[in-house]
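Reply to dn_fold:

You asked what the input looked like. This is it:
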Amino acid sequence: KILMLSGIGPAEHLRENGIPVVVDRPGVGRNLQDHMELYIQQESTQPITLNSVLNPFSKALIGAQWLFFKTGLGSTNHFEAAAFVRSRAGVDYPDIQYHFIPAAVRYDGKAAAKSHGFQAHVGPMRSKSRGSVTLRSPDPKSKPVIRFNYMSHPDDWTEFRHCIRLTREIFGQSAFDPYRGQEISPGSQLQSDDDLDVFIRDHAESAYHPCGTCKMGRADDMMSVVDPECRVIGVDGLRVADSSIFPRVTNGNLNAPSIMTGEKASDHILGRTPLAPSNQEPWINPRWQVSDR
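and this is what came back:
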């Protein structure tokens, strides 16, 4: 929004808003990406989950224990268990992210299950859908128009259905036998692709990882906005250093990569010699071409 209000962005869009064009970069505000996820919830047959401490009295005790002793349930976000897995054979990187919590409740603490429960948050990492950020008006006080275009690619639906079925398979393992009750969400009655699509449409939500609207790339790629040193292409003395420069959304959360972007950009600004390139490579399952396990 700031770039476009300053005359840096898609020329036609800027002219439509009466903004003089300083640099025509059609990629400004394009390529918007995000992570989406679902909650897959199970009842717990044992009273050992956080659902027992969601009442005001317990919350006050937890808060006091953290405030005075820095211990107790307030000293963690309870997402200690996480996983990255591949959705199918032939995918050479983990394209599904999991995190687990010993409660059946929304992120905002609302809509808690009436019984004890646990849940997995799961979603695909590399959606093919792309959105945009555009100006509503040339008034700096006006909010921009943000269109994520979630689930606009058919592969998104296929991947989310697989996420649900894979989670059911995980919760169906013998290790969960002493704890597993009825499936709360989506509910075991939803099995067909059409049933799952209805659930996905109603319940998939953002994991709050928006990025990509000022992507890094070559100067001759008009959809690129910044060069490899975070400098806005065609402008002197201006850089962008946040998650908007990512050409593709990262596998996993954006917090650490965004911090790293700021650190790297500050080194470029200060003219520091970069660290030596690393030759480390991630471990890849040698059976990735024939199995997802």
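DSSP finds six helices and ten strands in the chain.
Hope that clears it up.
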